[in-house]
Amino acid sequence: MENNNTSSSGILKTAQHNFQQAALRLDLPEPVRQHLMQTKEQITLRFHPALPSGRMLDACAFIARHSDVLGPAKGGIRMTAGVSADDVAGLAMEMTWKTALIGVPFGGGKSGIVCDAASLTPEDKEVLIRAFARAARRHIGPELYVPAPDMGTGEREMGYLRDCVSYSEGVSIPRGCFVTGKPVLLGGIHGRREATGKGVVYTLVSACRHLGIEIKGLRIAIQGFGNVGAVAAKQLAALGARVVAVTDLTGGIIHAEGLNVEALLTHVQQTGGVAGFPDSQPLSPDQIFGVDCDVLIPAAAGSQITAENVRNVRARMIAEGANAPTTPEADDVLNAAGVFIIPDILCNAGGVFVSYLEYTQETQREQMTLAEVEARLEERMNQCFEEVFDYAKKNNLPMRAAAMDIAVSHVAEGLRARGVYP
Ligand code: NAD
């Protein structure tokens, strides 16, 4: 297969590899493979905000729309120092499969703003996101591309983005949903912030039920303690699991008997990271995947479990909260070792599912209750897990291959249904 987008990005390589494997298994016709291998649209933006702290930034951002076969592109805005155009393309491709798998009428998109979010004051970050919104305005829209939070961005930034759109339209609220993950008062939905982490836990609970493993007492190690990792930790602790190790950009901590997650959340709020948490021992961040535990939850960056560290893994299950955390080489080793992997496009799809609910409620000017959102999230995550688990069993495939085959088939079917023009 021709690869017009070769790159050094581990995330893009992983996304392309997983797609190519699915295309082979499904025997997709060559034109369909070509179509879905490529990014439909990729944009580089340059803008120069003057920050309140006095700095003038030479800012760079990327937007990728991988596919809009099943609907407008959907995918978060990542703000990290290292994000590249190819990372964004790979993450957009992942979003195409994730939205198809979880059954929401979206395609795949992503944005990246090249900046170390943690180095900015809240005021500087606001100006940067508003400058991004201005530069990106004509690439964002309810029928085109609908952003959401990702690493380095959250509810606040989505609120600013929504406000910028209102401002540019000269109206109080824009017609339709331009961005999800907003504050509830600005058209957001209850439960969006927790949706991805809760979805991770629903899939893990389903997996344990099928594999005959008790959640209570299960030892969990988590990389990343942000939106996804911290919520998953809280939910798992509430179910009686033991969170034994956590790392983030500030360092790592370990406690074989289980960390006090509530106290850790307070510590992170007060200090900005997990390092130095009392009642724990320090853990070198690069040791997280070798921790003696039952379940690993990568919930940070991509390409973290690699050929170099995969043989240290002692867990019997991996729940991929992060996008593309496992390289193809590491995936092969884990599959051969019988490690049960809940793949990213299934495991962390709760966020985009609740984003879809936000999109529909805003279009209809409604407000769903938290109970409604949570019930629909749990039901959809469980249904989707069962579908992937059954397919994997019937076809004797690992969960990732099963999830990819289902998702790619949906998109290929959509392409065929649309005819020759897309
Ligand atoms: P976040 O910015 O809220 O938190 C990221 C966390 O990871 C922070 O604790 C940070 O310190 C830590 N981190 C970053 N790089 C690290 C590294 N190299 N080693 C250890 N820790 C590191 O981001 P998030 O929204 O929680 O996203 C985490 C992952 O989940 C990303 O891969 C993202 O694409 C994926 N994801 C997020 C959502 C969502 O709704 N936020 C949805 C689906 C997938």
Describe the protein in words:
This protein is of the alpha/beta class and 422 residues long. It is built from 13 helices and 13 strands. It has 2 domains: 10-14 and 38-186, Rossmann fold (3-Layer(aba) Sandwich), CATH 3.40.50; 194-347, 3-Layer(aba) Sandwich (Rossmann fold), CATH 3.40.50. β12, α9 and β13 form a beta-alpha-beta unit. α4 crosses α5. The longest helix is centred in the last third of the chain and has 26 residues, at 370-395. Residues 1-7 have low confidence and may be disordered. Residues 149-152, 196, 223-229, 247-249, 285, 299-301, 321-323, 348, 351 line the site of nicotinamide-adenine-dinucleotide.
Map the helices and strands.
Elements (H helix, E strand, L loop, with lengths): L9 H17 L3 H8 L3 E7 L11 E9 L5 E2 L2 E4 L4 H18 L4 E8 L7 H15 L8 E2 L8 H15 L22 H20 L7 E5 L3 H12 L3 E7 L2 E4 L6 H11 L9 E2 L12 E4 L18 E3 L8 H9 L3 E3 L1 H4 L2 H14 L6 H26 L3 H20 L4
Parallel strand pairs: 3-5, 3-6, 4-5, 7-8, 7-11, 11-12, 12-13
Antiparallel strand pairs: 1-2, 2-5, 8-9, 9-10
The structure holds nicotinamide-adenine-dinucleotide.
Please state roughly what percent of the residues sit in beta strands, choosing from under 5%, 5-15%, 15-25%, 25-35%, 35-45% or over 45%.
5-15%
| Quantity of strands, as a count | 13
Describe the strand arrangement of the main beta sheet, using strand numbers: 10-9-8-7-11-12-13
Whole-number count of domains:
2
Instruction: Report helical residue fraction.
Output: 40-55%
CATH C-level label of the largest domain: Alpha Beta
- Encode the helix/strand succession as letters: HHEEEEHEHEHHEHEEHEEEHEHHHH
